[in-house]
Amino acid sequence: MNLKTKINLGFLAMLLLLLSIGGYGYYSLRQLDRNSRDVLTANLYSVTLGQQMLRSLDELARQPLADTVATARFATALRKEAGNVTEAGEQEVVEELGQRLRVLQQLQRAAPGSAALVAAPPTVAELRRLTYQMVEVNTAALTRKTAQANRRADEANRNLLVFLTLATLLALGLVGSVPEAAVQPLRRLTAALNHATERDFSASIPQESTDEFGQVARAFNRMLSQLREYRTSTAAELITERNRAASIVNTLDEGLLLLDEHRRILLANPVMCELLGLQPEQVVGQPAPVLRLHNDLLQTMLSPLDAPNRAAAVAEAPLLHISQRGEEAFYRLAVQDLVSFNEATEKTEFVGQILTLRNVSDFKKLDQVKSNFLATVSHELKTPLSSMNINLRLLLDERLPAEERLRITGDVRQETQRLQRMVAELLDVSRLDAGAGIQLDLRPTSLADVVGYATATVQAQLDTKQLRLDVHLPQNLPAVRADVEKTTWVLINLLANATRYSPVGEVLTVRARPAGSFVQVSVQDYGPGIAADNHERIFQRFAQIPDKTGYRGGSGLGLSIAREFITSQGGRLWVESELGSGSIFLFTLPVVG
Known about the structure:
The chain has 15 helices and 12 strands. The chain has 593 residues and is α+β, with helices and mostly antiparallel strands. It is elongated, with a radius of gyration of 62 Å.
């Protein structure tokens, strides 16, 4: 039985006892009140009527035959008494009084005579005797009922005293047991907690019950057992965690320097030591203001900390240009304050600073690549625009032959297509960067149709460089699940690149063959080839690999977009090439079904 049930049962017992005492007291009072009312309405009223009758008889004793008024009052009281008969023998007395009263009334109505005068006094005396007898009967009943009521009152008092005694004993028992039942386990728990705070985890709590305190004892003992286990493994875990933290700090690819509130160096990871050109023992434990006097990099790192507006000084600090392992590297400084809550003063206090040098060389290179890209795009846009402007001026000359006009018109169309292709590439890249993704219309597609669309588009470029296109498509080539427009764009891009890098008069080969659940398409050229180190780089955005003649190609986006298109359709795009042996660009698409 749990403690809550015990307390509820104790209070329920008290409530039942109080209800019993109240109910019994109310019942006893009702009985006494009813008896008192019975006495008042029956016996005491009859005694009062008897006294009225005796007073009337006193008046009749003086003039028995002449005082008819007193007789009437006696008759009225007797009539009321007849309606209030409650005791044994009272009815007979009342009836006899009635007979005597009728005799007296007959004597009063009779003519005056000697016989009537003689008979009247004895009749009055008999009425008086009977009246006294009636009063005595009610007086005796009144005495008896009063004694009975007193006995009941005494009995009720005794019973109430017994109930009160039981209630008091029960209340004392609950007062002595319930608080003790609640406090004693708390004392044990307090003692065990005091031992635990003193790192003594052996003082468990005895499990003597199954109530809430028993559950608390079991939970506390389990906690002590776990604490003992934790204490046993604490040292090993601390060492492990320290080693893990040291491993994390030491393997960071950025320099980290930890200072205390007095700017004493507490920690410097290997990267920071290498950048400072010092050994760890020359750095850790040294005052940073002293060490900075002999180290230019540390002087530069600590300079923003002395500025009035440190955050602004750190944000405006230029990139640190450091030569590392014979290569140029760029680092950005970051400063973070360390704070800790002091329980003694209940305040947050400054405890030190973390200075980090983050290697941003890749971002710097990316920024340079974007700058180069803008320059390249500007050049790529300027060249066709300039050519178109010159050709348009030539077209304005009416003396120009018709054949020359057709040639110039073809050149303008080629430059326009080149501009359109470049703008489309830029739009595709901007949409991918914005997270819009690639909208595909996947459906069963014949690669023969795709190859036909692509070769027809680049035919003019092939004719310009006198290149021959060799297409090998098997008759039983299965249909693929692809987006016709995107796949055609990829093949056109690969053919345009092959045309750009192929020598005049060479052959371009387009092949397609089944490869398991895919169909593999390849475009082979006999250009300068691509070194193995650049096989993945050429698929990165803005990547440009100059060939032997120094030509850098287009915007550096075509192959990146092409790979996105093929990958989103469930295929793969890659290159197989060696320097001086040409290149083969291959991509796969899943077969329908």
